[in-house]
Amino acid sequence: xxxxxxxxxxxxxxxxxxxxxxxxxxxxxxxxxxxxxxxxxxxxxxxxxxxxxxxxxxxxxxxxxxxxxxxxxxxxxxxxxxxxxxxxxxxxxx
Length: 94
Hints:
This protein is α+β, with helices and mostly antiparallel strands and 94 residues long. It has a single domain, classed as GMP Synthetase, Chain A, domain 3. It is 46% helix and 22% strand. The protein is built from four helices and three strands; from the N terminus they run αααββαβ. It has helices spanning 7-11, 17-29, 35-41, 62-79; strands spanning 45-49, 52-59, 85-92. Strands 1-2-3 form a three-stranded mixed β-sheet. Strand 2, helix 4 and strand 3 (85-92) form a beta-alpha-beta unit. Helix 2 packs across helix 4 (62-79). The protein is globular and about 40 Å long. 18% of the residues are buried.
């Protein structure tokens, strides 16, 4: 009788979700020294599950929304941490 274990399920996720969230938070945290950017980014939250990072919250403009996404993506790529994707669920305030 052969027992086959799913290595992914047996050993848990191959992604370090907590570290991914910290890196994403640091990506915009670097901009928090600028009071204007700080105000525009204060409602952004990060949630990572199984390597999928979700950006949530309300931002002031489409430009800020795009900038946050770009900063997070760039920071994750620079650190070479393994992740699946980034999902943008941020909303622009009206």
